[in-house]
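Now for a sample.
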Amino acid sequence: CFVCGETGAAITCWEKGCDCSFHLPCASQSECVTQFFGLYRSFCWQHSPEPAVHATPEQNSTCIICLDLVKDKKPYCTMVCPACQHAWFHRSCIQKQAIHAGICFRCLRCQNKDQFVMEMLTMGIRISKRQPSRESDQAFGLVYQRHIRCSASKCLCPGGREQAEEEGSWQLLLCSSCAAKGIHRRCSYLRNSATIWECNCC
């Protein structure tokens, strides 16, 4: 293993010509990426896939999950939603959420699912294929529950405050500052091209 130097390293970097081998538990120590889908490819830190969005968090940016500062600027440790490019999180935080959220895993800020999930899988986040484990972990359950209602004083959606679509008039936008409140595009009179909304409190 090129990380710990011990024998029994059964994983080899997928890159042609690279003979770096490592143990799965050692992978994260050296910023290796293992993709838990498709061909289940693994890459050493030199050949890891590049994120879809090359962005650097601004000063005082916080992880949308733990609310601690995002200090490490390296793409491996600090990740961003490729859809809204406003939701920052630590790799360890998003990995925990991916396990708890299961098939409901999506960006907590913009609610994007397809683009977000594909990016997380590509960058080595393992996503559970089960129902959300809200009952076993109330903290993650509450995070999801607080984002699935329209906060408008008068919700115009025929399906009610709980209805949220992937795009269009009834897509639920979260406050770009606190992410604690959401609103349908139509209820806030925003154009379909708008991606940012802020609640009255912020």
Remarks:
- The CA atoms of residues 56 and 201 lie 27 Å apart.
- The chain has four helices and eight strands.
